[in-house]
Amino acid sequence: MPDIELFQTLAISLGLGLLVGLQRQHENARMAGVRTFPLITVFGTVCAWLAQDFGGWIIAAGALGTTALVVVANLMQRGKEHVDIGQTTEAAVLLMFAVGAYLVSGKTPVAIAIGASVAVLLHLKEPLHQAIAKLGEKDLRAIMQFVVISLVILPVLPNKTYGPYQVMNPYNIWLMVVLIVGIGLAGYFAYKVLGNKAGTLLGGMLGGLISSTATTVSYAKRSKSAGNTKSTNYNLVALVIFIATAVSLLRIIIEISVVAPTTLSRVAPPLLSLLLLMAILVSFGFFMKKEDSGQMPEQENPAHLKTALVFGVVYALVILATAAAKDHFGKSGLYIVAIISGLTDVDAITLSTSRLMNNKTIELETGWKLILVAALSNIAFKGALVAILGNKALFARVALLFGISLIAGALIIWLWPQEFVLDWFGK
Known about the structure:
Layout: H1 3-26, H2 36-54, H3 57-77, H4 88-105, H5 108-123, H6 125-133, H7 137-156, H8 170-194, H9 200-226, H10 234-259, H11 264-288, H12 305-329, H13 331-344, H14 346-358, H15 364-389, H16 392-415
């Protein structure tokens, strides 16, 4: 290794140790601080250098020596008052020794990421403890259910295609379940942290991440029960529902970027055009409203195994229906499937179509149009829900916002140039 690289490695090791040590010193950690941690990481780096000439036992001996140092430091703290019985600093010491050694034999960016993550994790002690304190039994169950869905069920499923048209792949189907449940769970826990403090803008965004349809139903029912009281701000409620719907469109784009990233340069522009219009309408409504007293309704856990199974079944049926429609009816059959699927779950048709585009089974132009048709079908369905479940005053406001969006979406499908390629994301 050239001398310049040696000094670069040493500087990075020293810097990471200083970063973690600074945080520990700020927290008045008695065992190790701004001087000890740099020494630990540099010690790990030197051990790794020596191991290149004398064997890996040098690193093992260094790790044992670091462990002995931690044990002695703890023994010296016995009998003193206000001793911190936590093991966070001790674990950080051992990990930073390993980071210092990894800098020599591993990838430098990974070592830097680990060291920086250690500093951030140590610094977020209070926010993490506060967030965990807000979790109830239902929330812990949600986490465990997601672990079952993603780490227990997914790995054991066969990654083979079955059934008619050879489109039913259990592993791929359940992978889409994990993706959708993961997005919903992220929004759910953001809601749990923020709770009813979430205002109009944030409430709508969280609702779109968790479930825009559920958010629409919840707010529509609340407007119905509130009646025509002067305290009810229907502009505010309509804005929350519309924001959730706009975020659901953004969620569609995110799903495409995960499943079929190579198609984004052709697929994203028309969808982003509609999203931009909806963002303009949100901005106008946000400045027009007089108050920000919106509160998120109680949200359901999106990681229920039953919910995951239902989505998996819906997704599988959409895949099968899409293949059958394409085979028997051509493009016209695909649009019928998109309209029907969009009424119930736009995620399923989005993911299935994204996979078909990624596999070049359908053309990109047909793909984004199918997804947009499903999204517009879902918007119309939510408008119908507001009409049935909500107050007439709320429906009048939602109908205006949704109507503009539906007309704009139809014009995009009709007028968007076929050969238009806007390479926003690079070729």
